[in-house]
Design brief:
The structure is a single chain. The protein has 15 helices and 17 strands. With 458 residues, it is of the alpha/beta class. The chain has a seven-stranded mixed β-sheet with strand order 4-12-11-10-7-5-6, with helices on both faces. Helix 2 packs antiparallel against helix 12. The longest helix is centred in the last third of the chain and has 26 residues. The two termini are 35 Å apart. This is Aminotransferase.
Amino acid sequence: MASPAQEPALLHRSFTQEPYTVTSASGSYLHLSDGRSILDACGGAAVAILGHANPEVIAATMAQMQKVSYVHTGSYTTSSAENLARVVLSPHSDFQHGLTKAFFVGSGSEANDAAMKCARQYWYEKGELKRTRFVARRQGYHGNTIGAMSVSTVLGRKAPYEDILMENVSFVGPADEYHGRREGETESDFVGRLVREVESEFLRVGPETIVSFIGETVSGATLGAMAAPRGYWPAVRALCHKYGILLHVDEVMCGTGRTGTYFAFEQEGIQPDIVTIGKGLGGGYAPIAGMLINGKVVDILKAGSSTFNHGQTYQAHPTSCATALAVQEIVQREQLVNRCAKQGRKLEQLLRDTFATSKYVGNIRGRGLFWCVEFMEDTAQKIPFPAEMSFGSSVQLAAFDMGIAAYPGAGTVDGLKGDHVLIAPPYTVSDEELVITVSTLKRAYDQIVTQLEDVEQP
């Protein structure tokens, strides 16, 4: 550990392990101060959808700053913000999503907090003041602010703050087929059980008290690219309609093309009331996220106070919006969502072929360019490694030493036990880079398995 005189002034995530210094980045690669180049196979945190140093995005950012870099949205707007909203809300396919307004902020956590407030204001404007509760899912993650963390269940991140989080939140089981589907239970039976649990919770707390049901359309880092079983989301959408509860889907990680359609919920055939997007919106070139709402919500706000009673200093920041607009225009022009789906099929096949006989690989799952490899000590019985072994993190660190960055996950099963790594490369990833990613991940896995089995030898 560094001496006090050498302590960095920046508060890093860890006091004991300093991060690597990135001096530059280009394409799919990060270039470190120690001379190494790392293939960014997870886009940071499923963020860098165009890779790094795209000249068109950089030029758009500079052009906006030369015109106007900041305005306060209490009085002003800019063409970059207005145009970004139109592009995001424009039809990206034949699917009719029903979303009509966009609200841009600086992070996914802020977007989910804004969505929770917007949903509450919807009921406030309707005079249904008893609606103060939120229902979310276990093993779900929605952000680090107090509101967003209150509807999340990442145990390690919540532990110090449990006593100060919102109490008007209850949780149902995750749409987790791999860990949750019982022996002999069909997919349809499993979905039925999940949906009955949701309805039971609605009835237990009183549907007339519930603001919204919140869930990731495809679960992100906590569960590891876990899509819901077929029929789950249409059934939940129907339940919310039955009881007049707003449906808020969190697509901060899985949206804006990551799963092979622009909105992940398109593949579920549903129309949510509120959607949050983030990481892929600006592709990492600027901090930006968004809340999108449908006409039903907009109409009630208009008919009531005719305001959204929420605002932030950097809301619809002109430079961030111009940057994100350039990213989204490239995504549309280059048909990168379709390319994401196509490259995703190649990534899936590579992962399944490469890890087909791997003793400790329990599950490979994902959509588009959003894939997870989950590890189990006993794959037949689905028994995870002891948490203290940090098997997934060990694989990720070994892969990093070999030149690729994957995203580690722990607590996959229940918040404490379970290990996985996520692969979420740029939509521009080449065939060669996919091969390098998977082959390197396999070498890293083999290395950790060899070390494990050497320790187990008498």
